[in-house]
Amino acid sequence: MSERISVVIYYNGEVYDIENGVIFLSENTARLVFNQNIDLTEFHKRIKRKIFRTTLMRVSSIKYLFCASVCPVTYDSFDIKSARSLEAMVQTHLASGSPYLELYVHFSLPNEAFATSTSTAV
């Protein structure tokens, strides 16, 4: 049986690169549980339905936040753009033992082909 994974989704906020790594800042969050062997298309659909339900918005990017080092504590992130990066996210999360993983999701309208998320170095 495949393991279920809990996720906190941050959206409509910002991603900051700081001294101790990366942080997500957003007042908008949602929680989702998914099966560890979900495919990327279904993952996008589940996230969109959880947050917007019936709107035309689409997922344009997903960043995964993870603890890169414990001494000192630093966080890093990587983009979830393919089946391979989705699998890497799942495996990194399962190896961490964390009760949930954290994602920053940027949404755009279907005609916003080159939308980008906000990222600020501090």
Structural description of this entry:
This protein has a single domain (4-117), classed as Roll (Ubiquitin-like (UB roll)). The mean pLDDT is 86. The chain contains 2 helices and 8 strands. The longest helix is centred in the C-terminal third of the chain and has 14 residues, at 83-96. The chain starts with a strand and ends with a strand. It has a 5-stranded mixed β-sheet with strand order 4-1-7-5-6. The protein is of the alpha/beta class.
Strand content bin: over 45%
CATH topology: Ubiquitin-like (UB roll)
Global geometry? globular
**CATH C-level category:** Alpha Beta
Give, in order, the helices and strands: EEEEHEEHEE
CATH superfamily: Phosphatidylinositol 3-kinase Catalytic Subunit, Chain A, domain 1
CATH architecture: Roll
| Mean pLDDT over the residues | 86
CA-atom Rg in angstroms: 14 Å
- Relative helix content: 10-25%
Number of structurally distinct domains:
1
What summary fits the major beta sheet? Answer: 5 strands, mixed
Measured between the Cα atoms of the first and last residue, the distance is 43 Å
Assign the structural class, choosing from mainly alpha, mainly beta, alpha/beta, alpha+beta, or little secondary structure: alpha/beta
The stretches of 5 or more residues where confidence is low (pLDDT under 50) are none
Q: How many E strands?
A: 8
| Lateral arrangement of strands in the main beta sheet | 4-1-7-5-6
Number of separate helices: 2
